[in-house]
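Researcher: Go.
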Amino acid sequence: MTSGTVIEARGLTKVFGTRSGLFKGQSAEARAVDGIDLTVRLGETLSLVGESGCGKSTTGRLLLRLIEPTAGSVFFNGRNLTELTRAELRRSRRQMQIIFQDPYGSLNPRMTIGDAIAEAYVIHDIGNDAMRQRSVYEMLDLVHLPRSAATRYPHEFSGGQRQRVGIARALALKPSFVVCDEAVSALDVSVQAQIINLLQDLQCELNLTYLFISHNLSVVRHISDRVAVMYLGRIVEIAKADALFANPAHPYTRALLSAIPPSHPDEPRHRHRLTGDLPSALAIPKGCRFASRCPFVQERCRVADPPLGSLDDHRLVACHRAADGTLPTYDLNA
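Model: Structure:
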């Protein structure tokens, strides 16, 4: 791992076995994550974007080893998580946490908010009852909820308040790395802004590093330092947020950005619509997996899978034509 790297994935792969056929007698493999390399740097927010089903959430869970990888390695602060014993992994988990998409489904409806937050201290055998109660109050203060919330139940709160509880629970053990898995997608737009601002304030206050998984590109543009674009289990582009939104290099990234609603109805905007069908994870095509939908496809794209290579000092792209400079210039308004 390089200096300043918090977490790094090398060749990370997850294959799910499925049953197909009329009587479910035939086995098949779905390659949800297919040999990705990804680095998250200290103190940054790296956003992971892409269509639903591309493998974003699976990647986040693999990085935390909430699910076991089929192949590859994950290094956290220099330690290979895939080689840790159950006890060693449990200790490491104090430094790695996740905020889930559904702020209600991730909370036990039979537990009070105080018990839900204190559960982390119980599991890791931290402190006594008095210390845990003080810590619960501190976490409620941190996410701007009243201390009286500790004795209430999840159904008594709004979606935004429940997500604040989810954030408090994730930060209870003072982690350094947090996966935000669609953490604002289930919230109203006005509440989304409040939660995003809270996450940014906490990042500065607590020196947190985020992997922010989302399909909302407007939110991603606001919160990210770098952005990784994922398509059908692979990373196809990684760049600084400003550079990616100003000049996306991969044809898939261009199509994603063109789908962002304009800020004003009269603003000129041209949708770079994709044609063709999205390939199935059960039958990954030969060559570039975006070839069947790419408007700039060439024969070599259908034969050879482009590696994720360096396009410049701050950008990695998996595209033959971007790599050799033959990809047409991008113009969102063209």
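Model: The first helix runs from residue 56 to 63.
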